[in-house]
Amino acid sequence: MKLKAGIIVFLGTNCDRDTKMALEKCGFKPEFVFHDTKNLEKYDLIVLPGGFSFGDYIRAGRLAKLSPAVLSLKNFKGFILGICNGFQILTECGLLPGALIENSGTKFICQDEPLIFNDTEINLPIAHKEGCFWADEADLKLIEEKNMAFLKYKNNPNGSINDIAGLYDREKKIMGLMPHPERAILKECVPNTTTDGIKIFDFIQKEILK
């Protein structure tokens, strides 16, 4: 039986279709969920996709964190994945520590990037202006002690502290990452990009089924 995945769609989301395609390719049964939905319990996985939720007004993820769907995540029993803007939302609502702030060079970055994923090098696309991960000393200590940084930049293009590109929560039931695994699934779509995104979704599937 395929795992059910709900993809939360906000006004301004632009990676929802890419994410749905990627989840289907990797064996999930995905469907779109509008941001005013309150009951998410029928899903095994909830995905907050990339884009510009509510236009990133005030700052990225600031308004989306107040939506009924995101508020419902605090009591959600399944697995949660936030990609790019989704990662920003997860930090804004406190489900993951730290914050995503403006890149050190202040410019929007769009390129393939080498990363270290669970001690293995992979390549995924990045596309963000507020992708620099920042955390205070207490949060950094917690992240290191609990081994929460599952994904790190090899060359750190945006100034993220400790090269952090993706985080778990303490229970390893919530994942947020700035790179876009859903854009590295089909070689036919982007010939010069790897299909390493499959490794991320396969890993999540195994984590859910534990």
As residue ranges, the low-confidence spans are none
Radius of gyration computed on alpha carbons: 16 Å
Q: Looking across the biggest beta sheet, what order are the strands in?
A: 2-1-3-4-11-10-9-6-7
Largest sheet report: 9 strands, mixed
Strand content: 25-35%
DSSP E strands, number = 11
Distance between the termini: 15 Å
Label the structural class. alpha/beta
Shape: globular
**Percent range of helical residues:** 10-25%
Q: Number of DSSP helices?
A: 5
Q: What's the helix-strand series?
A: EHEEHEHEEEEHEEEH
Mean pLDDT: 94
What brief labels describe this structure?
9-stranded mixed β-sheet; two-stranded antiparallel ribbon; single chain; 210 residues
Task: Describe this structure as you would to a colleague.
This protein has 5 helices and 11 strands, in the order βαββαβαββββαβββα. The strands form 2 sheets. It has a 9-stranded mixed β-sheet with strand order 2-1-3-4-11-10-9-6-7. Strands 5-8 form a two-stranded antiparallel sheet. The protein has helices at residues 16-25, 68-72, 85-92, 137-145, 197-208, and strands at 4-9, 29-34, 45-48, 79-83, 99-101, 109-117, 120-128, 132-134, 151-153, 164-168, 174-177. Strand 1, helix 1 (16-25) and strand 2 form a beta-alpha-beta unit. The two termini are 15 Å apart. With 210 residues, the chain is an alpha/beta fold.
